[in-house]
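Figure caption, in words: inputs first, then the predicted bound structure.
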Amino acid sequence: MYIGVDYYPEHWPKDMMDQDLQGIKGLGSNMIRIGEFAWHLMEPKEGEFDFSFFDEVIKKAKEQGLYVMFGTPTATFPAWLAAKYPSILSEDESGNVRVFGGRRQYCFNSDVYRKYSAQITEKLLNHYRDEEAIVAWQIDNEFGHEGSDMCYCEKCHNAFQHFLAKKYESIDQLNETYGTIFWGQTYNDFSEIPVPKKTITTHNPSLQLDWARFRSHSVNSYAHEQTQIVRSLKGEHQLVTTNVSGGFFHKWFDHEENVKLMDFVSYDNYPVWGGLAEPIPPAAIAMTHDFNRGLLGKNYWIVEELMGAQGHNIIGYLPRPNQAKMWSYQAFAHGCTDLLYFRWRGMTKGAEQFCYGVVDHDNKYGRKYKEVQSVFTDIVQYENVLQSPIAAEVAALYDYDNIWSWRFQQQSADFDFTNELLRLYTPFFKLNTPIDVISTNRDFSTYKVLLVPALQIIDRDLGEKLTEFAANGGTIIFSFRAGLKDKTNNVHFKLTSPGYIAEACGIEISEIEALSSGQYVPLKGVGSKEGKTATCGVWRDILTPTTAEVLYKYEDPFYPEAAITKNDYMEGTVYYVGNGADESVLTDIARDVLTNNNMTFIESPDGVEVVKRTTTEGEFLFLMNHTAEDQVFEKFALKPYESKVVRL
Ligand code: GLA
Ligand code: ZN
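Bound structure (alpha-D-galactopyranose present):
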């Protein structure tokens, strides 16, 4: 296993390198990640390549017995490239060309950019392909992050029109699919089709979804081009990855497609960042790990683990002592096998003066240094445990087309896909049940339970797969608005919702209502849930059961109908949660599901996360106290934010 830090030696006087590398080694590290963002250092002038600085860094790293992950530098192009070819710069929705000075301001559809970024990557790989200390290449940095996945420039517009001309047999077929007859938008030629930029009212939903698919194609075709260059030139001993950023459901590209040529996935784990008064909830952090493990269906690395407060302007929450260590153990528990902390020392100059590292600007080795040491000293004992596979029986499903469909037409002011996935995920997480987070493209037939949040796009094929899963004995929990649309982003015609899953759900959706911010509708339990009460927000489907049992109704004189149902469908069971029900309802259903499926789960105090991992050597528990209070789990006492691995 590799453990260490992200190190930017080019940020510091050269005479500090030896001391730095000794300090990094003193953590217990065996790896540094270098090179990302350093294009100008490698090509100070067009066509003049110079890797001597990093030659020296690698030589010194080897003296300390440190391995290297090297980042290709294409996230930050040199000023001379932008000055000579301003066409590489991307453009925002208002037509403003993004100026040099930040990062990732390149247009993915710029041939010039693709030419020059291919060239620097080829030169870099040819220079280091035989370097035995470099064991991994990181492609670019956090593709699409910070708004860089969207560009509205002329090149993207032309490329979009070509993308559509390739996708549709004729402009007539596009018109028919889009329904451009509406508002007289019929196109005579693909060259008439706009980029859906700001306009009066809103654009055609099919056009919007195709635009999102084109954005994804733009980012991913660039990523694949770069990955293929690295793969074709790298040494046999070198692996390829890219570092996935948080907020992956708010990006305009399909992450599973993005990483499909990689050897492994890397993730940047920041449970808190600039402007947040406190970290995101433990379940939300855990879900990010399960998502990244799901991308290639195997364990992954963390190449940026937060240790200090972070922020480009407003600085975020300061992790309490051992809290960042606890987040590291949570990552290991969820499938992380190798981990690097961001960053060795916080930089005194440039845009990230307030992205604090393991060592602060005064260069003293303090609390955070010791905290990292304690992680590395302990975790190396459990390498086999970390390598063990995680066999989840529960899977939460997502589909980027569906997510983008909701982003263009939010329908309810409070709708957010990530929140709706967490609504179903959190109860199972709190019962310490392993969960995979995977796309609907995957084979989900082997799971016992599927969590299917707000899946409004369900075509006949997916509907049949989900129905078959239930028929074969699976349990599905659908949440609201399921099955409304087809993959053209149009509402099914003459097909009562929930469309192709209606038979499995045993319901019809007779009416719908978007609930406003702060608006909640009371729910009352009936039948097997008699006496239970709850509320729901965000959205409600008014359900008419056909074969389903009603679990909850709306406390509503006008629409007293079914709100949440359960349908025994052939060998399986299908729940339909037709609203944004609160956690008490979903926790109760989660318990029913786990019990009825004879699935093991672990009860723990609220805020104490317990993950069991099994190897040939035995069973281990990862214990994470996410709270500021002393906690006790079975015979294990946990101080505030304490984390540990125990062998059963
Ligand atoms: C991201 C980037 C890093 C750095 C950190 C700061 O994860 O990958 O380059 O900007 O955030 O927190
Ligand atoms: Zn562009």
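The pocket of zinc ion (ligand 2) is lined by residues 90, 107, 109, 151, 153, 155-156 (CB under 6 Å).
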